[in-house]
Each structure stands twice: as structure tokens, then as C-alpha cells.
Specification:
Elements lengths: L1 H16 L9 E2 L2 E2 H6 L2 H4 L5 H10 L3 H16 L8 E3 L14 E5 L4 E5 L39
Pfam families: Ribosomal_S19
Family: Belongs to the universal ribosomal protein uS19 family.
Organism: Giardia intestinalis (Giardia lamblia)
């Protein structure tokens, strides 16, 4: 009986000692967002997946991509205290870099521009993943009105 009471007292003491955890800080593979935004591309490269490392390492970025990144930097620098203006692009294959976090980019999907707000978990992915170029098909249900012949089938 004494061991049971000491067990209960021990658990109560343990519960009072534990600290409550605060809100989870957004991060990308262990790096906080504030540090992530200031890091250079060469520093963040080892944390990206293999596809991004190969693309940037072997080929680098084309002039179109560099111009797009420069446009993002200019928009951010123009309004440091406010949210930057939306940048429109057709570059669906653009890899999302850490310095883009917090910006809104409108990505063309073949018909219209879809606004995408860039968040920390999106780093290292392509813009095309967030601007669907097709509509997901949900086929009609079988039954009354589904086909020409079923229109005239009497209800029960």
C-alpha cells in the first residue's frame, strides 16, 4: 500500500515539474524560418532533396529563373514593412528557395494565374505542385439520368 501511495505521489511530482511546450515554431528540416530566409542558396543546398541539388548543382539557374528571383527581391525590398506585391510567373518549374518564404506568387496553370502563398514547408519543391493545371475528375453516378437509356426507366 505504501509503495502505491509513493508511486502516486511520484507521478504527481513529475506532473508539476513538467513544463508546457509553447507553439511549434515553423521550420524547414530543423532550421528556423528567420535563419532560413537569410541563408544563401549554397548553405541550404545540402538540406534540399536530391532532385533540387542535381538541378541547381549541374545546370544552375537559367536567366529566366534568375530574373524571376531578382524580381522577387526587388518587390520585397520596395515594401519592407508591408506584404510584398504579388509576382506573376509562367515558370512552373521554378524551385522554391528560402528567400521566397512569406511572398505570394501567381503561377500560370495554362488558363489563369493561381495565387500561391509560399510557406516554409514548400521550400525545395516546384511552383507547379501548388498550381494544378487540370481539374480532378469526379464522374457522374450510375442511375437515373446517367445515360440516355436510363432516362425512361420507371422509378420503383
Amino acid at each position: 500500500m505504501d509503495s502505491y501511495i509513493s508511486f502516486l505521489e511520484g507521478t504527481m511530482a513529475d506532473q508539476t515539474k513538467t513544463r508546457r511546450r509553447g507553439l511549434a515554431q515553423p521550420n524547414f528540416r530543423g532550421v528556423e524560418v528567420e535563419k532560413l530566409v537569410t541563408m544563401k542558396i549554397t548553405d541550404i543546398l545540402p538540406k534540399l532533396n536530391a532532385r533540387c541539388r542535381r538541378r541547381i548543382g549541374k545546370h544552375g539557374l537559367s536567366m529566366k529563373h534568375l530574373r524571376f528571383v531578382n524580381k522577387l527581391r526587388l518587390r520585397r525590398a520596395a515594401q519592407p514593412s508591408q506584404k510584398p506585391k504579388i509576382v506573376r510567373t509562367h515558370l512552373r518549374d521554378m524551385i522554391i528557395f528560402p528567400e521566397m518564404v512569406g511572398m505570394t506568387v501567381s503561377v500560370y496553370n495554362g488558363r489563369q494565374f493561381i495565387p500561391v502563398e509560399i510557406k516554409p514547408p514548400m521550400v525545395g519543391r516546384a511552383l507547379r505542385e501548388y498550381s494544378m493545371s487540370y481539374k480532378i475528375v469526379s464522374h457522374g453516378k450510375v442511375g437515373i439520368g446517367a445515360t440516355r437509356s436510363s432516362k425512361f426507366v420507371p422509378l420503383r
